[in-house]
Write a structure and sequence with these properties.
The protein has two domains: 1-70; 81-173. Strands 1-2 form a two-stranded antiparallel sheet. α2 runs antiparallel to α3, α5 (81-107) crosses α6 and α6 (112-123) packs parallel to α7 (142-157). By secondary structure, the chain is mostly helical. The termini are far apart. Helices cover 71% and strands 3% of the residues. β1 and β2 form a beta hairpin. It has helices spanning 3-18, 21-31, 36-54, 57-64, 81-107, 112-123, 142-157, 159-166, 168-172; strands at 72-74, 77-79.
Length: 173
């Protein structure tokens, strides 16, 4: 068996594992015990290691064998490079949007757990949130409700669609 698929799989699993540090960061920030920086550093190291293993494997193979044609296959069909970059871009933008909305809701007056629950519930159109927004949004202020409406639009219309609408280059053509 070739080493390239195994290394790519290991790198991807390492990157996915790095997201398991997010709840620890949230709990450390929530309880204000001062240990959140250790978890952030662990997340960054784990994510970077996964990226270094996953992403450049194909490029290193191309450098070692410049005449070779390397193809990633899903079943019997090859997956184009632009599709792989689009998937990675969507994942990154989705996580970044969730983090920004969580921080914005915390700035609007919610605690970390309620803000995370509200963003998760609204952007995924999941339903119930956590703590203050577990049953309804009547106890939160108007800014949180507007951020929730914006998160619902992002979740319903998808992140890339809204990003395209806000890009000036889209309207020039």
């Amino acid at each position: 068996m070739h080493r390239t698929p195994i290394t790519r799989l290991f790198g991807m699993l390492l990157m996915l594992y790095s997201t398991s540090f997010l709840p620890s960061i949230g709990v450390a920030v929530f309880y204000q015990d001062g240990q959140w920086s250790i978890f952030v550093l662990s997340l960054a190291v784990c994510l970077l290691a996964g990226l270094l293993i996953w992403f450049p494997v194909r490029q290193l193979f191309q450098m070692a064998h410049p005449q070779a044609i390397s193809v990633i296959k899903l079943g019997r069909r090859s997956v184009p490079d632009d599709l792989l970059f689009s998937i990675w871009g969507f994942y990154t933008l989705y996580i970044f949007t969730c983090l920004i909305l969580t921080v914005a809701m915390m700035g609007a007056g919610l605690d970390l757990e309620s803000a995370f629950g509200a963003v998760t519930a609204t952007i995924t159109l999941l339903g119930p949130g956590l703590r203050d927004v577990a049953t309804d949004y009547s106890s939160v202020n108007a800014a949180v409700k507007w951020l929730g409406i914006f998160a619902m639009l992002i979740g319903r219309l998808e992140v890339f669609t809204l990003l395209t609408l806000f890009l000036p280059a889209y309207w020039r053509n």
